[in-house]
Amino acid sequence: MESLLRNLPEDEFVFWCIDDRYPIEIFETTVLRTVRDFASEVSSDVDSIKLTDLTVEGIQGKLRLMQGMVERRLLRWLTRSWRRQLSLRPENDKTWRQREEAVAREPAFTLGGQRFFRQLGHPKNGFYMPQFTTPAFLKRFFLTPALPLKYGIREFHRFLLSTNLEHKSYFPNKFLLSVGESTFRGRLSMVCYEQMLKFGVVPPKIEIVRDYKIYSDRGLAGIVELNR
Fold this sequence. Notes:
Layout: H1 2-5, E1 14-16, E2 22-26, H2 29-41, E3 48-50, H3 69-85, E4 109-111, E5 114-118, E6 131-133, H4 135-142, H5 153-162, E7 169-172, E8 177-180, E9 183-184, E10 187-189, H6 190-198, E11 208-209, E12 214-215
Parallel strand pairs: 3-7, 10-11
Antiparallel strand pairs: 1-6, 2-8, 3-6, 4-5, 5-7, 8-12, 9-10
């Protein structure tokens, strides 16, 4: 990361997307183009602009894709209800939300007709999701003296959970695209496998695991259940 970030202008936006959070489907093309134009042309006091609404957890692993939209909506409602019950102990809730939904808030700005809200809560929320951000913001995490000279993803994630810094990040109140996880401990996720077949890419010859995670609020277009 140091080599990647070293020569980039500190406050110019870059597109941040790690390899196990890949876009599956774009929902709001016009909005994304407007966000891109904003990121490429405007120098502003913004750390990041996220492309997913993290107040919705999305569709969890082990959910059969043949379930209807009603069942999915019911599952999301139950998930939200369960998370509300845990809101009294946010330090123990891994899905702690970015914003306080009980309080109406005005958007910080609008791009392409889409409202964006200031992120509340810990900067870890949405860190691994696709977003436009600045090298200066990423350096605050990856080049911190708190990390050893050589560290792995687990060490970095523990550091990410332990840090608490002021951040000026913004997110939409709905998903602009759907995102899937590609691998689980060296095994290829079912969703990623199906997407590779869909686009004519030859999948690697590694084990395929049925557990997966999709971040979306509008279904799973083009993804089908494996028959083996």
